[in-house]
């Protein structure tokens, strides 16, 4: 008995991989040994394996029971050593899950998925952006890069990476090369617009440098606090930027002059309403803008723009360029029909 307890102490200290290997060898050996001891009771090695597993897991169906003294003695050995061994294995597995969960919460794991959105910098605006994207795309997944000690958001669709987004290995942990787009937000406690935009510019430069290194385009969208900093971001090849302060001021100014326009724009920006802004590709049968306009109108969608060009209604008879990218306003159901 003392020898068995000494063996169990040794087993507890060995590595998980070694423990699993020892357990497999023990179960296989016990099955063949039981079959060798009582071939009449346990007619095949599989039946012996069934007996061993029901014994060490304390299930004990009793459908197969050793009949000889030798078989029963070995059964006692299985009770003491086998049950203890399986208990340790289960404990190690549970411990492994706990360690995995802790590492995931602390942002120390690497994201393996693709087609996700990378969010850099946690704030209420970043949280709202995640919710809006999920309203549009229910299957969307996110990787959040931030300095927080643990994930600030308990959401299965959000994978947290702790660290500095200017570091190459952090960008690789977020698998930024396979992301749909990267959204860079100003941190909530950042009061100095020069410092905030400067940090965002360094992050963008790091991303663009990495994109050049892997020879792949990475779509970046950046929150900018001051309009005068736009030229610096344009030099860094930012795809889109949102002026945080000016956007609010512009919206309030339009509401003051054209009463009700603010509500209209806010409804368009929010995905909680019946209609939303969607991007679609040019169809092969569309030759002129009028072709696209009429077809979309019949399907219940309003053609708004070709990229940044809102003057489509003034040039309906013009030919559509091959690189056209249309934006339409319609419901989600209509959009799904249009894209089909």
From TrEMBL:
Residues 114-248 form the RCK N-terminal domain. PANTHER family: POTASSIUM CHANNEL PROTEIN 2-RELATED-RELATED, POTASSIUM CHANNEL PROTEIN YUGO-RELATED. This is RCK N-terminal domain-containing protein. It comes from Anaerobacillus alkalidiazotrophicus. SUPFAM superfamilies: NAD(P)-binding Rossmann-fold domains (SSF51735), Voltage-gated potassium channels (SSF81324). The keyword S-adenosyl-L-methionine does not apply. The keyword Transmembrane applies. Pfam families: Ion_trans_2, TrkA_N. GO terms for cellular component: plasma membrane. Its main location: membrane. It is found in: Cell membrane. The chain crosses the membrane at residues 17-36, 42-61, 73-94. It is a multi-pass membrane protein. Keywords: Membrane, Transmembrane, Transmembrane helix. GO terms for biological process: potassium ion transport.
């Amino acid at each position: 008995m003392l020898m068995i307890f000494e063996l169990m102490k040794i087993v507890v200290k060995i590595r998980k991989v070694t423990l699993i290997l020892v357990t497999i060898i023990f179960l296989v050996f016990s099955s063949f040994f039981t079959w060798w001891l009582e071939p009449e009771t346990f007619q095949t090695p599989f039946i012996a394996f069934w007996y061993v597993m029901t014994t060490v897991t304390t299930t004990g169906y009793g459908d197969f029971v050793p009949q000889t003294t030798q078989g029963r003695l070995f059964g006692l050995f299985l009770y003491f050593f086998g049950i203890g061994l399986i208990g340790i294995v289960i404990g190690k597995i549970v411990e492994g899950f706990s360690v995995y969960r802790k590492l995931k919460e602390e942002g120390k794991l690497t994201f393996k998925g693709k087609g996700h959105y990378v969010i850099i910098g946690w704030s209420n605006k970043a949280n709202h952006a995640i919710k809006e994207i999920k309203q549009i795309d229910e299957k969307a997944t996110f990787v959040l890069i931030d300095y927080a000690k643990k994930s600030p958001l308990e959401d299965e669709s959000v994978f947290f990476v702790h660290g500095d987004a200017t570091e190459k290995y952090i960008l690789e942990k977020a698998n930024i090369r396979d992301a749909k787009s990267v959204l860079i937000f100003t941190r909530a406690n950042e009061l100095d617009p020069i410092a905030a935009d400067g940090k965002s510019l360094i992050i963008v430069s790091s991303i663009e440098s990495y994109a050049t290194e892997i020879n792949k385009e990475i779509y970046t969208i950046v929150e900018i606090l001051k309009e005068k900093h736009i030229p610096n971001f344009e030099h860094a090849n930012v795809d889109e930027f949102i002026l945080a302060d000016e956007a609010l001021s512009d919206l309030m100014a339009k509401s003051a002059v054209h009463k009700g326009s603010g509500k209209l724009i806010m409804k368009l920006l929010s995905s909680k309403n019946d209609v939303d802004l969607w991007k679609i590709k040019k169809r092969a049968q569309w030759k002129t803008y009028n072709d696209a306009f009429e077809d979309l109108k019949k399907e219940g969608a309003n053609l708004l723009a070709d990229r940044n060009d809102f003057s489509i209604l003034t040039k309906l008879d013009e030919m559509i360029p091959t690189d056209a990218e249309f934006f339409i306003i319609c419901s989600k159901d209509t959009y799904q029909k249009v894209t089909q």
